[in-house]
Write a structure and sequence with these properties.
The chain is mainly beta. The chain is built from 4 helices and 24 strands. The chain has a 4-stranded antiparallel β-sheet with strand order 1-24-23-22, with no helix packed on it.
């Protein structure tokens, strides 16, 4: 009997400890002060633009999204890839996939430019009851689907980064996708059960295991460093990457003041990372889109670990920002559920 009470006591202690840790990680004790020196314009005409990336040569933004609320309710509608020209003062979002059906539910994206200038767009697709990475050619602003890559290790893909015309890394944000109980336990207990996976053009293999909520993923300009956001772990993991094999060696982790989402590169090698500073507000926002959730974009120096907030709002203009990408003085901020994104001019912030 004494052994039973000891075991029960240990279980209670674990639950209490994890409960406090979850509350701290979720930002319940975190005070936020809005911060933005520039000016932002709300751009409509998109639905759920969760991820985006910018072609540094042209200033074209590629945005990926779909109506997550409709999909959760079992009535998915066609998602889309949009383009938005930062060099056009009268730019409006253009749907590059107007013929897509409800089987196209795009999530993370990655733009790859080959040495000869040829481009491909890699897109996580949750549609048709199957997880896939769709690969498109990009020619004169138009997309042409080349193929879909599927496999058992595409369990719960969140983000993708291409490293060649065929090869890519992606993150699985949960070990259990369909089992709601196990999915909830993963989140509450902070179980390190997610990973990053490498597809070399023919085979998959897990190369960064034991992550707590793998999310955004990106690679340095020279391809020698891989970055993975661990949302539940509130950390940015940095890996040395073997250019020949694609294998990763963990270098270090940088603790972050929030749950990190997508990662974008800056020309100087620093990173822009979207943070969810109040996870419970984020969950409430999923349940009711009118519930405001904070949006935060930070600049991270991966060498020093220095972190600087460049945008923070309480959600009045945009809730639950998931990606921040910069082109010159323009900062584009997308979100998970909102039917809009922000186009911010940073000139006044210098």
């Amino acid at each position: 009997m004494r052994t039973v009470w000891i075991v029960l006591g240990l279980i209670v202690a674990l639950v209490v400890w994890r409960g406090y840790e979850f509350a701290a990680t979720a930002g319940m004790f975190r005070d936020l002060e809005p911060q933005m020196a520039g000016t932002c314009t709300i751009v409509t005409g998109v639905v759920g633009p969760e991820d985006h990336t910018i072609d540094p040569a042209t200033g074209i933004v590629y945005l990926s999204g779909y109506d997550r609320v409709a999909a959760i309710q079992g009535s998915p509608t066609p998602g889309a890839i949009w383009s938005y020209d930062l060099k056009d003062p009268d730019a409006v979002p253009t749907n590059l996939t107007p013929d897509a059906d409800a089987g196209f539910l795009p999530h993370g994206i990655s733009l790859y430019t080959d040495a000869d200038g040829a481009q491909r767009l890699f897109v996580i697709n949750h549609g048709n009851g199957e997880q896939a990475v769709d690969i498109f050619s990009v020619t004169d602003g138009a997309l042409q689907k080349i193929k879909s890559v599927t496999g058992d290790l595409l369990r719960s893909p969140n983000d993708v980064v291409a490293v060649s015309p065929e090869a890519f890394y992606f993150s699985n944000d949960h070990r259990f996708l369909a089992d709601e109980t196990m999915r909830s336990l993963e989140d509450f207990l902070g179980l390190p059960m997610t990973d990053a996976v490498y597809f070399d053009g023919s085979e998959f293999r897990s190369v960064a295991p034991s992550l707590t909520g793998a999310n955004g993923i990106n690679v340095s300009a020279d391809g020698k460093t891989l970055y993975v956001a661990a949302a539940r772990g509130s950390a940015l993991h940095i890996y040395d990457r073997d250019l020949e094999t694609g294998d990763l060696t963990h270098q270090k982790a940088i603790a972050l003041p929030g749950l990190p989402d997508n990662i974008e590169l800056l020309p100087d090698g620093k990173l822009l990372v979207a943070l969810h500073a109040k996870a419970l507000d984020l969950l409430a926002h999923f349940g009711d889109a009118s519930h405001k959730a904070p949006s935060q974009i930070v600049r991270i120096d991966p060498q020093s670990g220095d972190i600087e907030t460049i945008f923070l709002s309480l959600g009045e203009d945009l809730s639950a920002a998931s990606t921040g990408a910069q082109f010159g003085d323009r900062l584009i901020i997308g979100a998970i559920i909102e039917s809009k994104f922000l186009d911010c001019d940073l000139q006044n912030s210098k």
